[in-house]
Amino acid sequence: MKKNKGFTLVEMLGVAIILGLLIVLVVPNLMSVYKRTQEKRHDLYINRLREASIIYAENNKDKIEGLNSLYNNVYIILQDLIDAGLLKAPVIDPSTNEKVSPQTSIGIKKVGAKEYEVDLFVTEFVRVVAFNSSGTFTVPVSVNKVDVLVVAGGGGGGGNGGAGGGAGGLVFEQSYPVSPGSTIDIVIGAGGLGSSVPNGTRFNGGNGGNSHFGTIIANGGGGGSAGGSSVTTRNGANGGSGGGGAAYGSGTSGLGGSGITNQGFKGGDASATSSNFRSAGGGGAGGPATNLIGGTTDIGGVGGVGLDFSHIFSIEFGDNGVFASGGSGYLQPTVESGGGGASGNDGMANTGGGGGNNGNGGSGIVIVKYIVTK
């Protein structure tokens, strides 16, 4: 029989040499193609982040411009872009094929009309976070101090031609020390209910709820007094800012409630010299309500002024960055900036504004600003 002949040593060496040459020639080219593909995918990923960041910045230009006026490096986070529908979660980094943390920071700065610098590799950022409801704040591990604004709920307005509610107390702490990595409880005070507290056969406004950032407490605004003749007392309630007093008929008077030092001011006093309603406005965080004395008409007083924080945070918050103005009295359509309600209207939510007569107070807010380093 014929024997099967195998490969000789020389033939096997020849095959090995040919395979070696192929590996030397082909593999580097394949690796180069793979590397260029990965680089192209990464460039597309970076461009997608930049484009999404610019669209977000243009849609939120007031916030970006407000912060850029104070800081060179302002940042947003990836979650902002996801929440705005500009990116889909999870975001994958093609260079590592791993998920990118939603907390990843992106620096952004406006440099011209619809022109922004986007830095995906910045190392220091300013972050502003607003809490419209109760919750917790986890301090980033690189942060040991924050600026924090705490505004309580505004007081409700008094019923039956009554007075405006006082603004919620306002506390602002700069460079407040915090422990990196700690969790801080946040409570947002509700606005006081308008015309809800019995006063004879009428109803005063209720006090607003306190707001907390850890141990920092802002006290709720005082409720405004009810108007008319069938009331037990015509005085506004004490609070972060005091509620307004009310009067009805010749010789009657009502005192505004007191505010708390460094949180708010007194509500307006009221007295009447004829058979008419006289109802003062509630106090504000920036000043007291004007006293309302005498007169022959029923037009009530305007609440006290609020405080403007647009230069510190951003005008996207509150009433154009103004917080905690008092509510206005009976038939008074004018209000100060800061969320206070006109006659018959509620205070603005998340401003701590006092309610106008019969109106509910606005809820409070907590705003935290801090600098993060990567």
Q: What is the straight-line distance between the termini?
A: 79 Å
CA radius of gyration is 32 Å
Strand content: 15-25%
Q: What general form does the structure show?
A: rod-shaped
Helix count? 3
Biggest beta sheet attributes? 4 strands, antiparallel
Order of helices and strands: HHEHEEEEEEEEEEEEEEEEEEEEE
Q: Detail the poorly predicted runs.
A: none
Report the strand count: 22
Strand order within the widest sheet? Answer: 6-22-8-9
Name the average pLDDT: 86
Helix content estimate:
10-25%
Number of domains: 2
Instruction: Indicate the structural class.
Output: alpha+beta
Written description of the protein model:
This protein is an alpha+beta fold and 374 residues long. The protein folds into two domains: 8-122, no CATH class; 128-374, no CATH class. It has helices spanning 9-59, 61-68, 78-83; strands spanning 74-77, 92-93, 98-99, 105-112, 115-119, 124-131, 135-138, 145-151, 170-177, 183-187, 197-199, 202-204, 211-213, 216-218, 246-248, 253-254, 270-271, 277-279, 292-293, 307-308, 322-323, 365-373. It has a four-stranded antiparallel sheet, with no helix packed on it. Strands 7-10-13-14 form a four-stranded antiparallel sheet, with no helix packed on it. Strands 1-4-5 form a three-stranded antiparallel sheet. A hairpin with a 4-residue loop joins strand 2 and strand 3. It is rod-shaped and about 130 Å long. The mean pLDDT is 86.
